[in-house]
Design brief:
Largest sheet: 5 strands, mixed
Number of domains: 2
Order of helices and strands: EHHEEEEHHEHHEEEEHEEHEEEHEEEHHE
Oligomer: single chain
Bound molecules: zinc ion
Number of strands: 19
Distance between the termini: 11 Å
Helix content: 25-40%
Low-confidence stretches: 6-65
Number of helices: 11
């Protein structure tokens, strides 16, 4: 369920009232100041009308009262490790997401881009009801289902060398600088998926998921061999290789001839690989071998198969490391977002309607 601060609601109602009855603007300002003092206010739940969600306003909205920030929204987050849900503001949630999803040593503009992408991704999921956790939580901390999340305290205990003071300072700066900003396409929150590393090009949504989403097209990405982790290899014994593919293939005697053909997508990911007469999708092959990406090449020698991969992740949307390279080259977070989500635009949340 999504909740908004009761004073934010009261401020909005007051604004409507005053617009209607032409009350002095100074009173509007007072109402807004009061709404901002959320530490002394209670909250009201509005989830009985369905999954609550904020509506979206233009960045240049004529009324400041229509602006909505991360602290005006409360969501329930299912802690996957403990199995309990916890209410927190969107800002608290995004703080944990940023700490878990990207190194805090990233350039601030890259952290800002990640903040907007994570905010948009979460709100779109909540609004569309895609999350659908059994507990009724809005989001969870399982990165395979929603997004990764870690508290500053847990990060300090888990990661040696984690400088919580610097990390919080940088992450908070990124969240404040982008407060309430999201990516929109038309009148919908954009599905701002992201991944760790692309090499040369991102993948289109069509290549990976078969759905053609205009702002998730393939675009250039600046990572190359100079980036640690961009190219990796994994080794498998011949027996292990055959065992993992046993349900697909009848293997011949000569392992040098197992791999017969690659069919590549436009961004050079493997669309299909033909092994011993059978085609296997690149996505399935990646999953079977736990590869970092579906951009791979298979080699055999000395009783072992070596699978070389380029990139990390599904390859669609924003590349996190690509964003950092762009930021280090002088691009702003707005430049980065508009590059990776071509055709989508940056907007500001508003609270005009709650569905
Ligand atoms: Zn989830």
């Amino acid at each position: 369920m999504v909740r908004i601060n009761i004073f934010a609601v009261l401020a909005f109602v007051l604004a409507l009232f005053m617009i209607t009855f032409s009350l002095p603007l100074s009173f509007v300002a007072y109402a807004k100041d009061t709404a901002a003092d959320r530490h002394f206010g209670g909250e009201i739940a509005i989830s009985n009308t369905g999954r609550g969600s904020p509506s979206i306003g233009e960045l240049s909205s004529p009324s400041p009262l229509s602006d909505m920030g991360d602290e005006d929204i409360t969501i329930s987050v299912l802690r996957a490790d403990a199995g309990i849900s916890e209410d927190m503001t969107l800002r608290e949630y995004l703080r944990g997401v940023l700490l878990a999803e990207v190194p805090y040593t990233f350039d601030t503009e890259a952290l800002c881009a990640m903040a907007v992408a994570a905010r948009s991704y979460a709100l779109r999921k909540i609004e569309s009801g895609q999350a659908l956790h059994k507990s009724g939580a809005d989001m969870c901390t399982d990165y395979t289902h929603c997004m990764a999340f870690i508290t500053p305290c847990d990060a300090k205990a888990k990661w040696s060398g984690f400088d919580d003071e610097t990390a919080l300072s940088k992450v908070n700066e990124a969240l404040l600088k982008t407060d309430g900003e999201i990516m929109m396409y038309g009148d919908e929150i954009a599905n701002t998926v992201f991944h760790a590393i692309s090499v040369d090009k991102t993948a289109s949504s069509y290549e990976v998921w078969g759905s053609d989403i205009p702002y998730l097209s393939s675009v250039s990405s600046p990572e190359d061999e100079s980036l640690s982790g961009a190219f990796m290899s994994a080794e498998f014994s011949k027996d292990e290789f055959c065992r993992r593919l046993a349900k697909y293939c009848d293997f011949s005697d000569d392992p040098y001839n197992y791999v017969e053909e690659y069919i590549y997508s436009a961004s050079l990911r493997v669309e299909k690989v033909k092994i011993c007469g059978q085609y296997i999708s690149g996505t399935d092959f990646r999953s079977i071998f736990g590869l970092r990406s579906s951009r791979f090449y298979i080699r055999y020698a000395d009783g072992k198969f070596t699978i070389d991969t380029a990139g990390y992740g599904h390859g669609v949307g924003m590349s996190q490391y690509g964003a950092n390279i762009m930021a280090q080259s002088g691009y702003s977070y707005k430049d980065i977002l508009c590059h990776y989500y071509t055709g989508a635009s940056l907007r500001k949340l508003s609270k005009k309607v709650l569905r």
